[in-house]
Amino acid sequence: MGSFTSAGGRGVLAATVHPRTGALTVTGASDAVPDPSFLVPAPGGEVLYAVSETEEGAVAAFDVTGTAPRLLGDPAPVRGTHPTHLALAHGHALTANYGSGSVSALPLGPGGAPEPAGGVLHHHGTGPHPDRQTGPHAHQVVPAPGGRWVLSVDLGTDSVHVSALDPMTGELTPHGRTALRPGSGPRHLAFHPSGSHAYVLAELAPTLTACRWDPASGNLVPVGEPAVLPTRPGEEGESYPSGIVAAPDGRFLWAAVRGDDAIAVLALDGSRERPVPVATVPCGGHWPRDLVLDPRGRRLYVANERSGDVTWFDLDPETGLPSRSGSIEAPAASCVVFA
Predict the structure, then answer these.
(1) Global pTM?
(2) Are 276 and 264 contacting, i.e. CB atoms less than 8 angstroms apart?
(3) 3-class SS at 314?
(4) Are 212 and 224 in contact (CB under 8 A)?
(5) DSSP single-letter state for residue 127
(6) Shortest CA distance to 110 belongs to which of 73, 83, 140?
(7) CA 31, CA 9: separation in Å to the nearest integer?
(8) Which of 47, 90, 101, 107 is within CB 3.0–4.6 Å of 112 for a Cys-Cys bond?
(9) Mean pLDDT per 10-residue run, the chain (339 residues)?
């Protein structure tokens, strides 16, 4: 679990998972790097990577074979500011740098330690929101299924960028850019398990853009923008969606919504292009920043940043509805991953 040390978090927390109930038990923590807000495990689960979401911006590697994470070498600079997300592809750690509106590729050295960023791809443009879209703000970077393309979601320019990564040099070459509705502020996307569609969750509007994805050409084509939340006549409020995940069988999407402090459940039909909001349930805390499925797709874990907890839910396999099962204290929680 990642957390914001600047807001009282313990850094990177390790926990065991009860095999029957899914309950978490914290075994240790490391505050060796400030604000490790997003994490990703290496294949095999022995090494964990974290962004340091600071003005300097860095990636750190941790050995997670023990009860507490152990820093491996020095964090490596990303050559960008305030990285919010990272992913692994072709021997590199890729970071989405919100502050500088860029994506960086850091080669992974012997033993898995990151090295300073080689390739850096800068986004350009603005959006209509007077405060949040005065420039580019890369919020997420995702390798597309098949590994040929890298997608980066930019909140500041209302777009998703597609690029190619050179596995030898780390250079990111722009390939295409998909424009989304102005002012929507896209934040995160999730691929359908078939790899044929992607769903882009907006932060500045509680909507979801369904897109067709062509892995051969690298083209992302929007086909609809449904609401994330069911219609609630007479109710108005501030809703700021954050994270999204897709069911392994492709029947449901779950989205975390801050402000409403809810998990939205959306159903998918056979076309995969018409997500329908069917229900919301309380997230178990305040300000759900991220959510993740367990490896078997049976439970949902939510990092509630402002209430300082991680809450988990059992999922009904027929309806997709989450049912709260338990929680642990995790101050300034920002994300959860399984290794």
Answers:
(1) 0.97
(2) no
(3) strand
(4) no
(5) -
(6) 73
(7) 8
(8) 47
(9) 98 97 98 98 96 98 97 97 98 98 96 94 98 98 95 98 96 98 98 98 97 97 95 69 98 97 97 96 98 97 98 97 98 97
